[in-house]
DNA sequence: ACGATTGCTTGCGCTTTGCAAGTAAAAAGC
DNA sequence: GCTTTTTACTTGCAAAGCGCAAGCAATCGT
């Protein structure tokens, strides 16, 4: 299931991995909504189907954007956590939201408008850094161990 | 063919439009490689199929990312040009390239490394602004008229 | 006028997506 | 310790999207 790349263009190569309906939505849910278990994702607002979720989590792990982990006291529930490579997607997500905010309201007027959106308007880079910091702090307080399967 | 939106999340809504293998590749080809005619796109390194190209150009026009135009002296060849909404995607493309540069070389070692990549490493925002400016200057010197079909 | 070029559309097979249902294993309840 | 529930998937099948090849109409070059 390794992704194959169309060419050597860095733009196109990023889209060979990220260019689909779900990959970045899953990353968003982890980064912003704090989702980390299979169940968390199935209960999302976007309602991803379990077979798609399963395949996408596999792909994300294969390319190194997330790692599959467990809490020491729970042998059933898997934890899916962003790696550095995954956290590095934050600026992309912020730019996507910024574009929606500025250019998608005519087509889709009910896009949410909140404090986060204000922060993005004020300083995108700072907002991205804050998100990454928040996630790293969460990681530090989450006890988990890596599994190799 | 209007896109429908999964929910009111600005991240997800952007991906409802942009989350696919081709849309942002086409925008990249227009912005960076200067492609503007149907033929230009078919001759690209990425080799998009004509039926897909046709449907994606239609979608891009419908959502207002590009406009379909002709040169006054040529009744056959259509020109596809980025609107302001389309040009506003530049920071997203720059972030995608930056991520590829920093995190995709282990999976795909032959990603190109050139002057543009150096510029992105040095100052992403400045590079995005330069790209937009370059495209706007090109637009100013390209004679064209809008067609309503 | 005639062939080449451009900008598509159509047909068909393959892959991806998506819903619903089922399964296996761990955890919780009694 | 036996049953029920929860979690994390897998499987089956229908629908949508993708992709190659071919075809076609309009315009352009000569």
SSE topology sketch:
The structure is a homodimer of 149-residue chains.
Chain A: H1 10-18, H2 23-31, H3 38-42, H4 50-62, E1 66-70, E2 78-82, H5 84-87, H6 90-103, H7 115-122, H8 124-141, E3 145-146
Antiparallel strand pairs in A: 1-2, 1-3
Chain A binds a DNA duplex (30 and 30 nucleotides) through helix 3 and helix 4.
What does this structure look like?
The structure is a homodimer of 149-residue chains. Chain A is globular, with a radius of gyration of 16 Å. In chain A, helix 6 (90-103) packs across helix 8 and helix 7 packs across helix 8 (124-141). The mean pLDDT of chain A is 90. Chain A is built from eight helices and three strands, in the order H-H-H-H-E-E-H-H-H-H-E. Chain A has a three-stranded antiparallel sheet. Chain A has 149 residues and is mainly α. Chain A has helices spanning 10-18, 23-31, 38-42, 50-62, 84-87, 90-103, 115-122, 124-141; strands at 66-70, 78-82, 145-146. Chains A and B meet through helix 1, helix 2 and helix 6 of A and helix 1, helix 2 and helix 6 of B. Chain A binds a DNA duplex (30 and 30 nucleotides) through residues 20-22, 37-39, 42, 48-55, 74-78.
Quick description:
Two copies of one chain form a homodimer. Chain A has a single domain, classed as Arc Repressor Mutant, subunit A (Orthogonal Bundle).
């Amino acid at each position: 299931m390794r992704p194959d790349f169309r060419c050597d263009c860095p733009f196109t190569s990023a889209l060979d991995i990220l260019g689909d309906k779900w990959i970045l939505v899953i990353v968003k849910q982890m980064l912003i909504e704090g989702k980390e278990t299979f169940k968390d994702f199935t209960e999302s607002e976007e309602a991803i189907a379990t077979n798609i979720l399963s395949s996408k989590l596999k792909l994300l792990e294969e390319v190194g954007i997330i790692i599959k982990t467990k809490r020491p006291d729970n042998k059933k529930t898997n934890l899916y956590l962003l790696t550095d490579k995954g956290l590095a997607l934050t600026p992309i997500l912020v730019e996507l939201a910024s574009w929606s905010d500025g250019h998608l309201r005519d087509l889709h007027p009910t896009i949410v408008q909140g404090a986060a959106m204000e922060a993005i308007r004020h300083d995108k880079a700072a907002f991205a850094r804050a998100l990454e910091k928040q996630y790293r702090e969460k990681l530090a307080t989450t006890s988990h161990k890596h599994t190799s399967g």
